[in-house]
Amino acid sequence: MDMVDLGAIAALLSVPTAVVAAWWTKRSAEGATSAALLAGRIQADTTISAVQTQSLLNRDQQRHIALGSACMEFLSVSDTLVGVVKRLPSLNHDERQALVAKHAIPVETRYASLELLAPPDVLTAAECLLSQCRLLERCALDRAVLRATISSLEAGWCPGDPEDCTDDRHSAAYVAWEFLVEWARKDEEGRRHDRDFLDYCLRNSATLTEMQVTQALSLKAVP
């Protein structure tokens, strides 16, 4: 009886032990799987975060590159416009307007590109330069006429001693030069008052063509 009871008890005990062992093995496997899944998820999240950070850095770098390029292009076309305006007095009058327009348009288009990229401080500086370019464009033709006329008059001065010169053409060239140098400082009434005498001096200087005289007399205040 005792042996039977002990065997039965041993048999009963052996089942829970097997079950516990199986349960423990299953839990261990599930734990390993969960740990693997957690590690995988952490790694995936880290990778995604790194990719997003790198993407942001790349976009920021590309933006800086694009901004630098846009600034250089804007400065380049502005500088080209200034160079063209400086050359205008030596060019034929009929060529000047088309040349100024050709180089003024890129200034506007490059500024439009810069507006999309530049931070406020850079854009403010660009706006100032754009305003100067627009003013230069508006005044370019009149400035060219004024400078070309002044150069022609200077070439018509007395080659010797001006104080002893008795050639009316030389005297007229000098007086006309003085008028034009001061022309920008005169108001409209002053220019209207002096225009007839300036006309007389320009024609008597014998240094200008009829067209050049007409252009000079049509000048308003030139900044």
General description of the model:
With 223 residues, the protein is mostly helical. Helix content is 83%, strand content 0%. It has helices at 2-87, 93-115, 120-155, 168-181, 188-204, 210-217.
**Count of extended strands:** 0
**SSE series:** HHHHHH
Model regions low in confidence, pLDDT < 50 over at least 5 residues? none
- Return the structural class: mainly alpha
Task: Note the gap between the termini.
Answer: 129 Å
Shape: elongated
Instruction: Report the major sheet.
Output: none
The fraction of residues in strands falls at under 5%
Describe this protein with a few key phrases:
mainly alpha, 223 residues, elongated
Write the layout of secondary structure elements.
Layout: H1 2-87, H2 93-115, H3 120-155, H4 168-181, H5 188-204, H6 210-217
Quick recap:
This protein is mainly alpha-helical.
